[in-house]
Write a structure and sequence with these properties.
The complex is a heterotrimer of chains A (238), B (375) and C (346). Chain B has 375 residues and is of the alpha+beta class. The two termini of chain B are 32 Å apart. In chain C, helix 1 packs antiparallel against helix 2. The chains are: A alpha+beta (238), B alpha+beta (375), C mainly alpha (346).
Chain lengths: 238, 375, 346
């Protein structure tokens, strides 16, 4: 009699599992679940890293993130005042973390996020007090590096005679044809060299571009000249 | 209630019960208005829209990348499959080619998603028929896949892991042993399902001959996926119109000519084995390399163009129809061909004249996900 | 040790008579005390059983079951009972009020009455009726009326469907249930339960009546609305069927009655097939609970393994398989008795 054999087989399986001392459940509050390394718990924010570029806000599909930006007094510099993560709308899609260039966003493994009201689920990062100091320090550091570089360049110029062919490359030492191709007229070349002397970083970049991609270098050089002209024009007005 | 009055001595009447939207066995928010004559179903009307989130409209206001997490919320039980269909459709539109390694990772994740979806389908079928324990065993094994998903993408269910041009993360080191172990243990798991579910005579009697769907009807209604193959029509997009790199793998397409709930169940069990085969081959030939192609930060459609891309989802043919507008980073219009929605339309037909308990069996074996049906 | 309880009863009667009560009144007071004992046993059993079922289901499904309240979660049922008692007793507007309200009360009353004839030990039945088996079977089928009352009174289509299923199931399964027990009555020649148990002092009837055992077990599962036959409740289809509209304590009474029935039917099963109080080592009043719990565990085991059977399959199974089988059993038993008598006569 085949009928009923399948039933008994099933009963045998359940019986085996009954006395198997293997449980699928985690006794939750006491026993914590094992979370994988990439587990996405809560979105966290490193205030120090943020450059207020808004990329994360634009990448978010659900408008979870928002920046509160103020213009610093006496300059155009954007100053981040607060960063708000409205976790209730978050889809944990990781797009913001991927978009961030300065690794200001990351996930931790905190998954117990229930709150008593809707407002308190928002995570608000206020501007910490040390940020002003930190930014000032960074600014000073940048300034110092810039000056050091400028000094090094001028020192190099001093040591290396103008008649000699320089060992270190510079835009000014490029052949006339290339310079002409870059900026066009003599006047523009002069302006370009002026701008580059002021800003060593741009100078180095442009030099690289000349080697690798002439078209791009041309565009950049033109833009630089145009900007310098504009600045000069505006300065003249004042 | 119908107003007709029976003329004979003992007046009887049809009555309507509303199965759902709050009913444990409708797999979400389906509302089946069922006209019953005692225990026999006279007619049933499928009313949808309780989980409607206007995903297709949302797509019009999101960039191509931003919409990926929303697609995972269509068929929320098969993790990577809807995002796969969507990203491949976008790649078709923008002429982007994913890297070799990304293609393999996608296949592995897609097939794991299919296994997890089928396991849940089998489990919930057992649950709907009253065998709670069998359901727990299926969920137990699906849990391993969920853990693997968490390893890879940090999320267990709604995995937003695929990107246009590739995937977001590489497979972690601990993924390979876990995947291999699952593949190795799968035959043992299936043996257990056979012992608890398939071999059970009560269950066999409840499935065999129930909800018979003929090949002609299935084709006429546009039924796809395991339900169509269970009706004896040999059609699998993975083989017949290969997308991604499916043409490189050897697998069989299980077919059953029964057309009843029993055939639909068996086809799904057999597909578990075939998916495992594909994963094994993909793991063996997984190449090194980049996981994502170089794509511009903002994806823009090059010209006014529309694409349709379909994949074999765990529920059937899942298609994304995208109309792109030139120079815009958002789709002009997007439509989802949702297999659950279309498969569900045969329910009234196959339920007519059956017992009330067969209604539950039929829903469970058609395996609709209401998130996808309502969109 | 075997006669503890009989001694206590005798002592109580003697004590009351020495205080000047006539024998009739003393016996009546003893009966009342016995009633109280039965009630206490029922409540205690149900508390343990609900816990046991949840625990068993947990282990079968590789979970732990209740494990928070008390050692191994043993007080979980008590906490649940307190919760159910303090819940609001919702009476929907359009119910048939009296039928709706009294259905659970009748149900629990009938279930407790089943215990009166069960012999827990030798001479340890509250009332040892000479038609005990008949009394038990007829009373246990009455619970179906209460389910029908609940389903009809609730004025809910789901409930009505559940109730109708319960009635159809009862009518179908009452027949094989009684037919399968006829063999036992033929062998022992008595409907008195203590006589049936006493007849098994050497050989348990499980050996003489294996076919009847299977038929009775399946029919009893259906009669109890348990396991694969829980049509009237059918969580996944009818959403608790007949009990959909009940809340709080009224719902708990149904639950209580169901487990009470379970114990009673299992105890009857033990008395009929597993030798009742007969057994080595343990005192006789302990054997019946032990065997009953084993039988109950088998009920649990079946319930948590099998899917629910379909309504029409259930009917056809009874009419086409169980009834012929139990009729065959009667014929075989008849032949067996004749052959046995003939062999003895040689």
């Amino acid at each position: 009699m085949a009928y009923g054999l399948g039933l008994l087989k099933g009963m045998w399986v359940t019986l085996k599992h009954t006395f198997e001392k293997k449980y699928l459940v985690v006794q939750y509050p006491e026993q914590r679940p094992v979370l994988q390394e990439r587990f996405r718990g809560t979105l966290c924010f490193r205030f120090e890293n943020c450059i207020a570029c808004n990329l994360c806000v634009n990448s978010c599909p659900n408008k979870v993130l928002s920046l509160d930006v103020a213009k610093a007094e006496g300059g155009n510099k954007r100053k981040l005042m607060a960063y708000v993560i409205d976790m209730q709308y978050c889809m944990y899609c990781n797009l913001c973390v991927e978009s961030c260039n300065s690794s200001a966003l990351y996930w931790n493994k905190e998954f117990e996020k229930s709150t008593f009201d809707k407002e308190s689920i928002k995570i608000i990062y206020e501007r910490p007090r040390y940020m002003d100091e930190l930014e000032a320090q960074r600014e000073a550091e940048k300034e110092r590096i810039r000056q050091e570089k400028a000094q090094a360049v001028s020192a190099k110029k001093d040591t290396v005679g103008e008649s000699e062919i320089s060992a270190g490359p510079s835009v000014a030492e490029q052949p006339k044809e290339i310079l002409a191709e870059l900026a066009g007229s003599e006047e523009n070349i002069a302006i370009l060299l002026q701008v580059l002397a002021k800003n060593t970083v741009t100078h180095d970049k442009l030099l690289q571009m000349i080697d690798s991609d002439m078209e791009k270098a041309k565009k950049v050089a033109l833009a630089l000249v145009r900007k310098a002209l504009k600045d000069r024009h505006e300065g003249g007005k004042e | 209630m119908s107003a007709e009055k029976a003329t004979h001595q003992l007046p009887t009447d049809h009555y309507i019960v509303n199965v759902g939207p709050q009913h444990p066995s409708t797999h979400g928010g389906a509302h089946l208005q069922t006209v019953l004559d005692g225990e026999i179903i006279v007619d049933t009307v499928v009313k949808l829209g309780y989980v409607h989130r206007s995903v297709e409209k949302i797509a019009e206001s999101k960039t191509f990348t931003q919409f990926i997490p929303y697609t995972a919320r269509l068929d929320y039980l098969s993790g990577c499959l809807p995002p796969l269909a969507y990203t491949q459709a976008v790649e078709k539109l923008l002429d982007i080619f994913p890297t070799e390694r990304a293609e393999y990772i996608r296949i592995i994740m897609a097939e794991f998603s299919r296994i997890s979806s089928h396991l849940l389908c089998i489990g919930s079928l057992a649950l709907d028929l009253g065998a709670t324990t069998a359901c727990i065993y299926c969920v137990r094994d699906r849990e391993q896949i969920m853990d693997m998903f968490e390893m890879v993408g940090g999320q267990r269910l709604l995995l937003s892991f695929l990107r246009v041009g590739g995937v977001s993360h590489d497979l972690p080191e601990n993924f390979y042993p876990a995947a291999r172990r699952f593949i190795k243990e799968l035959p043992k798991m299936i043996d257990e399902y056979h012992a608890v579910i398939t071999g059970n005579e009560i269950l066999q009697r409840r499935l065999k001959g129930v909800g018979r769907l003929s090949t002609e009807d299935a084709l006429a209604y546009g039924v796809t996926g395991p339900n169509l193959r269970a009706s004896g029509f040999d059609y699998d997009i993975r083989r017949d119109d290969p997308y991604g790199i499916y043409d490189r793998f050897k697998f069989e397409v299980p077919i059953d000519s029964g057309g009843d709930a029993w055939a639909r169940y068996l086809v799904r069990v057999e597909e578990l084995v075939q998916s495992a085969r594909i994963i094994e081959q993909a793991l063996d030939s997984l190449p090194e390399g980049d996981i994502c192609a170089k794509t511009p930060r903002l994806l823009k459609a090059p010209e006014n163009q529309d694409v349709y891309h379909h994949i074999e989802s765990s529920k059937g043919e899942l298609g994304f129809y995208i109309v792109g507008a030139a120079g815009k980073d958002k789709p002009h219009r997007l439509h989802v061909r949702a297999p659950s929605f279309i498969n569900l339309q045969v329910l009234p037909m196959i339920c007519r004249g059956a017992k009330f308990q067969d209604l539950i069996t039929n829903i469970a074996t058609l395996d609709p996900v209401l998130g996808e049906a309502d969109r | 040790m075997d006669l503890w309880f009989t001694n206590i009863a005798n002592y109580i009667v003697q004590l009351l008579m020495s205080w000047g009560f006539p024998y009739f009144w003393a016996d009546l007071i003893l009966l009342l005390i016995q009633w109280m004992c039965v009630l206490a046993i029922v409540v205690l059993d149900v508390i343990i059983l609900i816990w046991l079922e949840r625990k068993a289901a947990g282990f079968i499904q590789m979970r732990l079951g209740p494990n928070r309240l008390g050692p191994f979660g043993i007080f979980q049922t008590i906490a649940d009972a307190i919760k159910l008692m303090t819940k609001e007793d919702i009476i929907p507007n359009k119910v048939d009020k009296w039928i709706f309200l009294t259905a659970p009360l009748f149900m629990i009353f009938i279930s407790v009455m089943l215990y009166l004839v069960l012999p827990i030990g030798e001479g340890l039945a509250v009332v040892d009726l000479d038609v005990g088996l008949l009394y038990f079977l007829s009373l246990s089928s009455l619970t179906t009326i209460c389910v029908l009352m609940a389903g009809w009174g609730s004025n809910n289509k789901w409930s009505l469907m559940g109730a109708m299923r319960a009635v159809a199931q009862m009518i179908t399964y009452e027949v094989p249930l009684i037919l399968s027990l006829l063999g036992i009555v033929m062998i022992t020649g008595s409907l008195r339960l203590s006589d049936i148990v006493a007849a098994q002092s050497h050989v348990w009837l499980i050996i003489m009546q294996p076919l009847a055992l299977i038929c009775y077990f399946i029919a009893a599962t259906a009669e109890l609305n348990r396991g694969p036959f829980d049509m009237p409740e059918a969580e996944q289809e009818l959403t608790a069927g007949a009990y959909t509209e009940y809340t709080g304590m009224r719902w708990a009474l149904f639950f209580l009655a169901e487990y009470t029935n379970l114990v009673a039917v299992s105890a009857l099963f033990v008395c009929l097939f597993l030798g009742g109080w007969h057994g080595p080592f343990l005192p006789q009043w302990l054997w019946i609970p032990v065997k009953t719990y084993v039988v109950i565990c088998v009920f649990f085991w079946i319930k948590w393994t099998f899917p629910r059977i379909r309504m029409d399959h259930l009917m056809s199974f009874s009419w086409k398989v169980l009834i012929p089988l139990s009729l065959l059993n009667i014929v075989l038993t008849g032949f067996g008795i004749e052959i046995f008598a003939w062999v003895r006569g040689l």
